[in-house]
Amino acid sequence: MEQVIFMALCLLPLLYAFICLSKLVLQWRDQCCYLLAYECYKAADDRKLDTDSCLKIVLRNKNLGLEEYRFLLKTIVNSGLGEETYSPRNVMAGREDCPSLGDALLEMDDIFFTTLDNLFNRSGVSPSEIDILVVNVSLFSPSPSLTARIINRYKMKSSIKAFNLSGMGCSGSLVAIDLVQNMFKTYKKMFAVVVSTESVGPNWYSGQVKPMMLANCLYRSGGCSMLFTNKRGLRHLALLKLKCIVRTHLGSSDEGYGCSIQVEDKHGYRGFNLSKSIAKVAAKALTMNLRVLALKALPITELFRYALNSRCRNKAAAKEVVSMGLNLKAGLDHFCIPPTEAAVVNGIGKRLALNDYDLEPSRMALHRFGNTSSGGLWYVLGYMEAKKRLKKGNKILMVGFGAGYECNNCVWKVLRDLDDANVWKDSIDRYPPPSLINPFMQRYSWLNYEFLSFIRFDQIRNAIDQCR
Length: 468
Prior knowledge:
By secondary structure, the chain is an alpha/beta fold. Helices cover 43% and strands 15% of the residues.
């Protein structure tokens, strides 16, 4: 009898330890973040910005001179955008100089409710089941909030936890996902919806400051709604599982804070100014972020190889190279580079040692839909899925940059083979196209002729108008 009691006393601590460990494991399992579905926005065909439509908008701006036209020509030609991107309604209607509150709300409603209707229909999840709602729009924050607008439209439950994010820039989508992931650590068996887009129409720049004119050339209408859950019982329905997310913020630096900022020019025209230091700040932010992310995403063999090579590299030179000899492909299969502009996509690809196959999804998303700000990464993901690249077990790196200055990256694991054509279904067979050359240069290269500097500008405008 004494032996039985002794054995029981010895086993009790082990049993207690086992129960505690089991609780921790079960708690960790309930904290997983699964992507169940996502829906990207595609506007109507009457809002496509081809060469003629772009020219009409440019000619309406009476503040521009020959030098500004030459700058716009160079920017548009080198942007990487194609002939089928979408413009906001008020810009197409010629009201970019005097947008109303109604214009701003109509732009948001169209993107919100189109994508959310499709999301709920596709997933089979009812709006009344949503526990967390996060809306990310950087440049528009009305009252009541945009989240309240969605809650009212779908009559969501009163206990919903709603968050409205603004000012986060192109990386806002990943910021919202990080918020959802942290909420999932506290609340079990939840559904969360993230809506990411940008208010483009009311923030059109009508001045002549060149760095502020860039936004007009690059930003287009677009956005995405996503459905997440931490219900492990729905894992078999999920597309992706979030493995890790790393955020880096350089806002404590004046250079980082001011390199991408909304300002007014001397004539009172408001726009977004991108300074010359933005490339340097972005490279620094990406370097710092990858140093942390690599420890979470890459195998130990690659980290060990990198550590050995680093000892033989000059420290000063190492700070200038983002990838620093790190082979990201040792632990990652696909790369969602933000489709902001061609130079940015190519620059990140070069620093991360990516090839044309790796960069193709970002280049094609940029060409077809333009820079859709925080929604852009999901058009890139959609391209990968439509091309049937995503196989079970693959890992995807998403890279995001935003004002502040921020670099936010995350890694997803593909849970099953994906092949839905989604927003690309009407155009995926045409991509990649034979050429990405923008027709603007072919039709308006004569703007660069030197003799035009000696001709009255109204004659030049008339000549441009006749070329349409």
